[in-house]
Specification:
- The structure is a single chain.
- Helices cover about 40% and strands about 20% of the residues.
- By secondary structure, it is an alpha+beta fold.
- The chain has 3 domains: about 200 residues, no CATH class; about 150 residues; about 140 residues.
- The longest helix has about 50 residues.
């Protein structure tokens, strides 16, 4: 029995010794990994600690105090690689990695080039010149990422304290940082700058954890198609996900498309519109039919929200001058077409193509659409022709009047449209006159109130010779007739006369007219400048 007990005790001691030895081996392996780059890490970390995380200049604003370089990026790569592997990241093959980078970021990796990184600038995606910026510091722009070609992952440029606990791994440097000066001299001006040391950042541990989590989940989503990581990013890294679509035009993930489109509903209308198209660095335009599919598959109430936002974006883009007209016309044409198709069954039609007529000249779009063969969409031409000038019949109608008529009597049809712009106190009257083979545009935005009661507001427009008359109720029992004339020589439009009519109790107009303005007596007032509130009529 004693022998058995002794054998058991010996076995226990040997096992304990083996386990201890194994732990030491693991620690040594970790140290060996660090030893490979320990001197470089030590040098870079010391430089970063000397300059602090930021500095207070002139006791008024924070500035960057450390200029990052390629060395700062290179020294983090082995560390980032180890972090990713330990957190379950599976580096794809070179072939798959190259294909995915091209699909997501529209960037081509050339293995034959002797470079380690592709630079991604999220505010200007076509800027390929290598720069070294960290994110989440004093200045967040430009937001920079780096494709590591030889290791097959994506990273930011991190300061070493943002990735590792330097207090534990580099205790000597941590101690040295404590005694480092709290002020440094600004090189250009010689002014003293108050430093914020890395060890003074109270939430550094949580920030480090956040950096690592984002690093891991971004790579696992992009290159491992990990859906758990995608859902984590939806909750914790919205800016990164939305940039994939809005900045780089990546729309191959239906779940991502739906997430981004819905997120943009409550934001800037210009950003919402970017979800539908992408312009490559070579200038080529891509329209995202994937987003149209998302809208089609949404519940009706959500469809209405999307269509309203599309309407606002169409108005925005019509007046945007940053795109070549051919590309702007393609985006507008396709957005209007699909919106009309989706909107018609749910009483949201006849609200999109007419904007091209109301806000601009529909004929220039007609010319472009025809030139591009209506983008090879079978019924595009039919929808465009049937809806461009039609007056909606829904209760949310914002077109008050639309008609084609030869106003200046030159044998060519002109167009006149009265509509209520979004969030405007006045209705807009737009006239498009033919003028020696071209078109001449006229707008008035002060004549007709958009904030009207059931007894007040626009009634009709009548035409006779070179004259047209705008009829409106100015009260429950008074009608106003504003007549304009077309100058035969200049094709300009001027106020001709202003009359009022009293409506009798039986609802019919009295024959009595009170003419209070005549052009011959009071001089010329142009159509564009006519404002009944400022014009002195008496």
């Amino acid at each position: 029995m004693k022998k058995i007990k002794l054998l058991i005790l010996c076995y226990f001691l040997i096992s304990c010794w083996n386990n201890t030895t194994g732990n030491k081996t693991t620690e040594n392996q970790q140290e060996e990994f660090n030893i490979e780059k320990i001197q470089e890490m030590n040098t870079v970390l010391k430089s970063q600690l000397e300059k602090g995380i930021s500095g207070l200049y002139n006791n008024s604003f924070d500035i960057e105090t450390y200029e990052y370089s390629n060395s700062d990026l290179e020294v983090t790569i082995p560390l980032v690689k180890e972090i990713l592997l330990k957190r379950g990241y599976q580096p794809p093959t070179d072939k798959i990695f190259i294909e995915q980078v091209q699909k997501v970021f529209h960037r081509i990796i050339n293995p034959s080039l002797n470079t380690n990184f592709l630079y991604l600038r999220f505010d200007i995606p076509c800027d390929k010149e290598m720069k070294f910026y960290t994110n989440d510091k004093v200045d967040n722009t430009p937001y920079s990422y780096y494709i590591v070609k030889n290791e097959n992952f994506l990273t930011e440029l991190y300061a070493l304290p943002e990735l590792l606990d330097y207090k534990k791994l580099f205790p000597d440097l941590y101690k040295l940082e404590t005694s480092m000066p709290s002020e440094i001299k600004e090189e250009k001006t010689g002014d003293m700058i108050q430093l914020t040391k890395w060890q003074e950042v109270e939430d550094l541990d949580s920030r480090r954890k956040g950096n690592i989590d984002k690093l891991v989940h971004r790579n696992k989503y992009l290159f491992n198609d990990n859906r758990s990581s995608f859902h984590w990013l939806c909750l914790n890294d919205e800016a990164f996900l939305t940039s994939l679509v809005l900045t780089f035009g990546y729309v191959e993930d239906k779940e991502l498309d739906k997430y981004v489109l819905e997120k943009q509903l409550g934001g800037m209308i210009s950003e919402f519109g970017k979800a539908f198209w992408y312009q490559g660095c070579d200038g080529k335009l891509f329209f995202h039919n994937q987003m149209i599919d998302i809208i089609k598959q949404s519940p009706i109430e959500k469809q209405k929200e999307y269509l309203k936002a599309i309407s606002l974006y169409i108005r925005f883009l019509v007046n945007d001058k940053n795109l070549p007209f051919s590309q702007k016309a393609e985006i507008l044409g396709k957005l209007c077409y699909y919106a009309e198709k989706i909107g018609k069954p749910i009483d949201m039609g006849f609200k999109y193509f007419y904007i091209l007529e109301a806000e601009s000249s529909g004929d220039i779009y007609e010319e472009e659409f025809k030139k591009k063969e209506y983008y090879n969409i079978p019924d595009f031409k039919k929808v465009w022709e049937n809806t461009r000038t039609i007056i909606p019949h829904s209760k949310n109608n914002d077109i008050l009047f639309s008609k084609k008529v030869d106003i200046n009597k030159d044998g060519i049809e002109d167009r006149i449209i009265v509509y209520n712009p979004e969030n405007d106190l006045f209705a807009t009257i737009k006239i498009v006159l033919s003028d020696k083979g071209k078109e001449k545009l006229f707008f008035n935005t002060k004549m007709l109130s958009n904030n009207i009661t059931s007894e007040e507001g626009f009634r009709n427009i009548s035409f006779k010779g070179h004259f047209f008359t705008i009829e409106e109720n100015v009260s429950s029992d008074i009608l106003q007739y504003t007549t304009f004339s077309i100058d035969n020589k200049t094709n300009n439009i001027f106020l001709y006369k202003l009359e009022y009519s009293i409506i009798s109790d039986n609802g019919y107009d009295d024959e009595y007219y009170d003419s209070i303005y005549l052009q011959k007596k009071n001089g010329k007032v142009s159509f564009e400048n006519y404002d009944p509130k400022t014009l002195k009529l008496f």
